[in-house]
């Protein structure tokens, strides 16, 4: 860790927020890899592989995030989970298109997914984390969690 003085400040819930943000970074990297693969003319098998890997990781991340929100009394967790299901459906649709004869449509889906995921994090995830933070005095302030997360990277 680049900032050892931040380590004691990472409270129980703050560490969870940092971990969820790190998972967001992984998904962002996966989607960037997908975009690069498509732009470089990679074959369908590689694109399907990256999509499959992205779907699996998103399923795990969404379960972690929904559990965190549910455990901390976030009142809109069911609505949030519905948004996750919609994103996963979009990933699966892109994967199905890539596996069929619609690689150009899969490519468009991939570019849209990258933007939609970033919007989801900004519009839904971070506000949800802030709501959890307000409810629990033990939660590390969100901006501190992001600073610690950045220092780790």
Describe the protein in words.
With 153 residues, the protein is mostly helical. The chain has a single domain (4-152), classed as Up-down Bundle (Four Helix Bundle (Hemerythrin (Met), subunit A)). It is built from 5 helices and no strands. Helix 1 (12-39) runs antiparallel to helix 4 and helix 2 (44-71) packs antiparallel against helix 3 (77-99). The longest helix is centred in the last third of the chain and has 33 residues, at 103-135. It is elongated, with a radius of gyration of 17 Å. The N and C termini lie close together (8 Å).
Properties at a glance:
153 residues, mainly alpha, Four Helix Bundle (Hemerythrin (Met), subunit A), disordered N terminus, disordered C terminus
Write the layout of secondary structure elements.
Layout: H1 12-39, H2 44-71, H3 77-99, H4 103-135, H5 142-152
Helix pairs in contact: 1-2, 1-4, 1-5, 2-3, 3-4
Quick description:
The chain is mainly α and 153 residues long.
Mean pLDDT: 80
Number of structural domains: 1
Note the gap between the termini. Answer: 8 Å
- Nearest-angstrom radius of gyration? 17 Å
> Could you give the count of β-strands?
0
Provide the CATH architecture: Up-down Bundle
Instruction: Figure out the total of helices.
Output: 5
């Amino acid at each position: 860790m680049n900032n050892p003085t931040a380590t004691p400040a990472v409270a129980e819930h703050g560490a969870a927020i940092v971990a969820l943000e790190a998972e967001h970074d992984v998904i962002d990297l996966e989607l960037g890899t997908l975009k690069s693969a498509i732009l470089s003319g990679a074959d369908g098998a590689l694109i399907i592989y990256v999509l499959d890997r992205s779907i699996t990781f998103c399923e795990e991340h969404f379960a972690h995030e929904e559990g965190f929100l549910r455990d901390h009394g976030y009142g809109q967790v069911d609505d949030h989970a519905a948004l996750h299901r919609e994103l996963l459906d979009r990933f699966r649709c892109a994967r199905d298109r890539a596996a069929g004869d619609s690689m150009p449509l899969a490519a468009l889906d991939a570019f849209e997914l990258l933007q939609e995921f970033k919007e989801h994090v900004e519009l839904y995830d971070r506000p949800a984390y802030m709501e959890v933070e307000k409810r629990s005095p033990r939660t590390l302030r969100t901006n501190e969690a992001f600073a610690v997360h950045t220092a780790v990277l």
